[in-house]
UniProtKB/TrEMBL annotation:
One Pfam family this sequence matches: Yae1_N
Domain Essential protein Yae1 N-terminal: residue ranges: 41-79
PANTHER family: PROTEIN YAE1 HOMOLOG (PTHR18829:SF0)
Transmembrane segments: none
Domain of life the protein comes from: Eukaryota
Record key words, sorted: Cytoplasm, Nucleus
InterPro entries in alphabetical order: Essential_protein_Yae1_N, Yae1-like
UniProt protein name: Essential protein Yae1 N-terminal domain-containing protein
Any one GO CC term of the record: cytoplasm
Amino acid sequence: MPWLQAVQPTKGDDVFDEEVDDMQIMQQEWKSTMEKRVKEGYRDGMDAGKADSLQQGFNEGYKEGLAVLMTSGTLKGCLWALKCWSCLLETSSYLSTEIDNLLLAVGRFEENASRSLATSSLQPHPGVLADSIKDISLNQSAAPQEHCDSREGRSSDCCADIKGFPCKRSDGPTSSPPECCRKAQEALLKKLVCRTLSVAKDMNMSEDLINVLQNLEK
């Protein structure tokens, strides 16, 4: 019947075609959204990881730099105070030269320490410290041999010459490089502090300055 054929759907006019098309569009949108979310999550994770690593590196670097350079910075301030005071008092040329040599030594120590911290995040290499000691003459041969008094009033050998800090000896390794570098660094700072304290005592400086230098020795 003509009216029945008119109501029957033809082959190309399926009543579910629109629903199928809508489902495909939704699936494509869902897939695109999920891919976008995955990329965003990966990018956010990378940013968070970088930020966490940077913060951790900053914290470690700040702690390391503070431990290394705070003592040398305080020591340099004391030396400048001694230099200004020596100019006012017109002290002996030996003491003035000693102060200048110590300022030069502390400046080079800070330069080497800062370079080592920036490049390796480790303690300065012992070879760098040994070269610094070798290059910086403190005119010890021209000056009388002196020993610093410890807190108990006894003499110590902290003013003794530092010959170098190799991490290995002929009979085998002594310690790991970080530990060796740390000891070398501490020995050099102790040497500089000790000689500064000796100069301050020779100049009859105030107890406040003497106490500051003695605290740096600890």
